[in-house]
Amino acid sequence: MLISIWGIEREKLLLFISSVLTVIGVAFFAQWSILSNITAGIIVFFSFPFKIGDRIKFVDKEFPVEGEIISIKSFYTLVRNSEGEEVLLPNNLLLQKGIIILSSN
């Protein structure tokens, strides 16, 4: 009934269904990444592995960051490096990658 109302031909039904499932899959992946950042933010906030004012080194081959923690938010942590640049690090990466605490405040 809905197929005839929407004007979808029977031959194109499989294409329509696969397109809808693809959009739903992308939406679930986007939600998963947002939820993982929020969950990681809660863990970082309550477990206190580091705090605002600490100098840390984010260990990553492609993008190492060393600086002072300025702010800890629900999605990201803000770090100011020695050049004065402010770098946003997603909280889920802070739990997955290595963090070296250089000095604690």
UniProtKB/TrEMBL annotation:
Q: Keyword Transmembrane: yes or no?
A: yes
Provide the protein's localization.
Membrane
Keyword hit for Acetylation: no
List the GO molecular function terms. mechanosensitive monoatomic ion channel activity
Superkingdom per UniProt: Bacteria
What broad class describes the main subcellular location of this protein? Answer: membrane
Instruction: Return the Pfam families for the record.
Output: MS_channel_2nd
The transmembrane residues are 12-29
- Gene Ontology CC, one term: membrane
Q: Which InterPro entries match?
A: LSM_dom_sf, MscS_archaea/bacteria_type, MscS_beta-dom_sf, MscS_channel_2nd
The alphabetical list of record keywords is: Membrane, Transmembrane, Transmembrane helix
Domain Mechanosensitive ion channel MscS: from-to ranges? 34-99
Q: What is this protein called?
A: Mechanosensitive ion channel MscS domain-containing protein
Q: Native species of this protein? A: Capnocytophaga felis
